[in-house]
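Z., the sequence and structure:
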Amino acid sequence: MPATKTGAFESRLARVRGRVQGIGYRDACVRRARTQGITGWVRNRMDGSVEVMPQGSAQQLADMCSWLRDGMPAALVDSVEVMDMPPTLQRFDHFERLPTL
C-alpha cells in the first residue's frame, strides 16, 4: 500500500528545466509515479519547465527525484530544483497530469 494511504508521507515540489516539453516527459512521469505508488501531479509551465508535486515515502520521493533527472532518455535535463513541502499539505488520491500553467 502506498505511503500516502498509510499516513507516513512527504511532499516535494520539483521544477525540471531543460528539454522536457514536447517529448512525452509528463506522460512518462505519470507512468513512473503510478508504478511506484506515488500520488500528486505534473504539469508544464509556460517558461518551458515542468513542475512536479510528488507525495510518498522518503524513499519513493528520492527515487522519483532521481528519475526526474535521469529517467527519460529523450529528455535533456539541465537542472532539477526540489523543495520540501509542509506536512500539512493535502494528500492526493492518485498521480495526474494537470493543464499547463
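Confidence is low (pLDDT under 50) at residues 1-5. Residues 72 and 79 are 14 Å apart (CA to CA).

Let me know what you think.
H.
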